[in-house]
Amino acid sequence: MEGYQEITKEGVKETAIEVKDVCIYYQMMKNVTVRHNLFHKHTQEAVFEAVKNISFTVEKGDILGVIGKNGSGKSTLLRAIAGVFSPNSGSIDLKGHTVSLMALGVGFKDNLTGRDNISLSGMLLGFSDRQIQQRMQEIIDFAEIDEFIDRPVRTYSSGMRSKLAFAITAMLETDIMLVDEVLSVGDERFKKKSLKKMKELINDKNRTVIIVSHSIDTLKNLCDKIMWIHDGAMKEIGEPKKILDDYLKFMNQ
């Protein structure tokens, strides 16, 4: 699919991600008895709005950072862009680009081994078995989980899941990479190694990246633009220094 093109002072720029008026909400489950459910079937359930009418675009090759307090809807929005679930309203258009989500164990099947999860993740990303097998040892070596690669993922620590998730997405490269806090998990050596690899990946101007993080330094050093989400709504989007300064001032009030 041919991407949308925007004419700027620098020339023609292609839009890789277009999010328009996206809303995502959840039904709040009430703690009630079976008897109540039987005799009060028409009771209105409360609705929690996780994402409220968010619209933005990301140009091909750009890096968008997303910041906000816990529970602000950042990860929910990222999973919707990744196609984990659909928004309740609005639209998300990836302009035909392939996309991968780098998050803590998202999509892992707990009863499968790490090796089997690599194969499954690769197939879901659209890679052939041959392509996956060609990268298999590279992924295993980068993840540094040794003999656990052939054990069920349910036996992994959160750090091991994070390492495997990062390795899969880093080695099976897609047009769009969505990164959810993975860079902040693991020991210091792995953090440095991951950051170095991330910089290599995003230096490719054909790759578009969205990074959700609480790390001001990471966002400041890597991103072209920052979006601040607060209570499910976009509060600001723009140049990293200004948005991050505004966010810090707000959080320190």
Provide an overview of this structure.
The protein has 253 residues and is α/β, with parallel strands linked by helices. It has eight helices and ten strands. The strands form two sheets. A six-stranded mixed β-sheet has the order 6-7-8-4-9-10, with helices on both faces.
Quick structural overview:
By secondary structure, the chain is α/β, with parallel strands linked by helices.
Which percent band covers the strand fraction?
25-35%
Span of the ends, CA to CA = 46 Å
Number of strands: 10
Uncertain stretches: 1-9
* Overall pLDDT level: 86
Globally, the shape reads globular
Order of strands, widest sheet: 6-7-8-4-9-10
* Amount of helix: 25-40%
Q: Profile the largest sheet.
A: 6 strands, mixed
Gyration radius, in Å: 20 Å
Structural class: alpha/beta
Element pattern in H and E:
EEHEEHEEHHHEHEHEEH
Query: Helical stretch count?
Result: 8
SSE topology sketch:
Layout: E1 4-8, E2 11-27, H1 34-39, E3 47-59, E4 63-67, H2 74-82, E5 89-93, E6 99-102, H3 114-124, H4 129-143, H5 158-171, E7 176-180, H6 188-202, E8 208-212, H7 216-222, E9 225-230, E10 233-238, H8 240-251
Parallel strand pairs: 4-8, 4-9, 6-7, 7-8
Antiparallel strand pairs: 1-2, 2-3, 2-5, 9-10
Quickly list its features.
single chain; alpha/beta; 10 strands; globular; 253 residues; 6-stranded mixed sheet; disordered N terminus; 4-stranded antiparallel sheet
